[in-house]
Amino acid sequence: MTVNEYIMRERAKDNSEYPRPVPRIECVDGFSISVQGSEYSYCSPRENIGPWYQVECGYPSAIPTEIMDYVEDSDNPTGTVYGYVPIELVELLIANH
Predict the structure, then answer these.
(1) Tens of pLDDT along 14-53?
(2) Using CB atoms within 10 A of its CB, is residue 78 exposed (0-12), middle (13-18) or buried (19+)?
(3) 54 lies in a domain?
(4) How far, CA to CA in Å, does 4 sit from each of 14, 31, 63, 77, 78?
(5) Residue-number span of the structural domain to which 87 is assigned
(6) Is position 20 within any domain?
(7) CA 55 to CA 11: how far, in whole Å?
(8) Is residue 19 part of a domain?
(9) Counting beta carbons within 10 angstroms of the beta carbon of residue 59, is it exposed (0 to 12), middle (13 to 18) or buried (19 or more)?
(10) How far apart, in whole angstroms, are the C-alpha atoms of residue 60 and residue 31?
(11) Which residues contact 5 (CB under 8 A, 6 or more apart)?
(12) Which of 3, 68, 80, 96 could staple 73 via S-S, CB 3.0–4.6 A?
């Protein structure tokens, strides 16, 4: 399943007027990260329906070296967000875990 498919599947479960964050992605090795795409996220396009080519990531359980170029607070890489991350890098990050 792609990141776009995951976000859209989870978004389809939400009937609220404003989209809620989708659940964190949990990898088989225990790594987890929030990955969001919506009109309220640092993503592109900034819409509630994908596909997105850049997404917002946040609060990874370990330092995500693959996306460190997008970190908002490099002094706290597991306690911050990563804006406008190319979706291919997010999929690489997930595949590496």
Answers:
(1) 777 778 899 999 999 999 999 999 999 999 999 988 899 9
(2) middle
(3) yes
(4) 16, 19, 22, 24, 23
(5) 3-14+25-96
(6) no
(7) 14
(8) no
(9) middle
(10) 7
(11) none
(12) 80
